[in-house]
């Protein structure tokens, strides 16, 4: 099977919003206060704790507009947070629900039909590996099974770097 990595929202996207930038609909993000239940930050991939301020905004995790470039509401800590780095580990926020939609996308950022499945949280890594082993799938999204909101992306794990001698490092 193919090893995978869980990928958070890019820091450049978060920085854009933290610095007063506008969302995918060219609107300023809204500020809310977390009630402590179900407000996952897409940058650190942790829940935003009760009483903490958060930004809610329209996000499009695709490089360009096109018919399959889904846009929807997501959350981000209002105060800067560290981007999720334990990419080989299923993020804590994916424990907040019993299941999620896991769906494959092609290299041209289109949904690969027939790949979307509501997947139990403990089955997400195995299903993502199965999808990423296919030649027609470039990456996978994890989305809310209830609201279809983007949670995170799953990519194939990076291959180890080769040293000048050609040995694995």
UniProtKB/TrEMBL annotation:
Any Pfam family the entry gives: DUF1203
Name under which the protein is recorded: DUF1203 domain-containing protein
